[in-house]
Specification:
The chain has 250 residues and is of the alpha/beta class. It has helices at residues 70-77, 96-102, 114-117, 179-188, 199-203, 209-222, 239-246, and strands spanning 21-24, 27-39, 42-54, 60-63, 82-87, 108-110, 126-127, 139-145, 150-156, 161-163, 226-228. Helix content is 22%, strand content 26%. The longest helix has 14 residues, at 209-222.
Length: 250
């Protein structure tokens, strides 16, 4: 025996995919297939995750929709009618056009400037900066602006759940099959268990650091029980503790 530890076996990314996974009453996630994303000049496989919130009215919000399929739509509509399609930041919009094509009457809500910055046509019905109708009152909204990223932060009061997208990334290295991606994630500071915004994204908030600090303070004031993120392991408990840890760079 050599005494060396065997490498931990790699896992598939968050299977089963494209199914509703309950998180709390009126709250689900859907882990979708990987999408190839340009990051630091490279094309790398990113996991995808949608958050689904059922409103007091019974309608559903689809936050950062994963790839459209008739089966997934049917599963969602068994929980309530789809009322809003949400592009929560200037990077998470890719599958919105497919959903919109299948349900043209459902409004698309997106962060300001998305239609101009998107790499494919995305029709936006309402800016997430606008707190006027039809925005649901049971979800608090906070928009964070950086040079590279504008992200809408959501707090579902009934379940005390904070819903983020890229402001925290927490990739589990054992679920990344690309050795190059594993190395980059580790170097960027976005690896579980100490996930946070990757260093290149942190630098883009240099000029808006004060506004970001104010936003983080508001997230802490909300005192979330859990935090759902789009990439990697999300936080089922200790929400405030995880916020203080992940945003200590601010």
């Amino acid at each position: 025996m050599s005494g060396e530890r065997s490498p931990e076996p790699l896992l598939e990314p968050y299977a089963p995919l494209n199914v509703l996974k309950p998180v709390a009453p009126d709250l689900w996630i859907v882990d979708g297939p990987e999408i190839t994303f340009a990051w630091m000049g490279l094309k790398l496989p990113f996991s995808t995750r949608m958050t689904v919130v059922r409103l007091d009215s019974g309608g559903l919000i689809l936050h950062s929709p994963v790839e459209y399929s008739p089966g997934l739509r049917s599963a969602l509509e068994s929980q309530g009618p789809i009322r809003f399609l949400v592009a929560p930041n200037s990077l998470h919009y890719w599958w919105i056009p497919e959903w919109k094509a299948q349900m043209p009457s459902v409004p698309v809500l997106a962060v300001p400037g998305l239609a101009e910055r998107a790499k494919r046509p995305v029709f936006v019905d309402q800016s997430l900066m606008d707190r006027q109708s039809p925005w649901p009152e049971e979800i608090d909204l906070l928009v964070v602006k950086g040079d590279m990223l504008t992200e809408a932060v959501f707090f579902h009061r009934a379940s005390r759940t904070l819903i983020l997208t890229d402001l925290i990334e927490n990739f589990e290295l054992k679920r990344i099959h690309s050795w190059l991606f594993r190395t980059l994630v580790r170097l960027s500071g976005a690896a579980d268990p100490d996930g946070k915004a990757p260093i290149d994204m942190q630098l883009t908030f240099f000029r808006s650091g004060q506004a970001l600090r104010k936003a983080v303070r508001q997230m802490i004031v909300w005192r979330p029980e859990r935090i759902i993120i789009a990439h990697g392991r999300w936080y089922q408990k200790d929400g405030v503790k995880e916020l203080r840890r992940a945003f200590r760079w601010v």
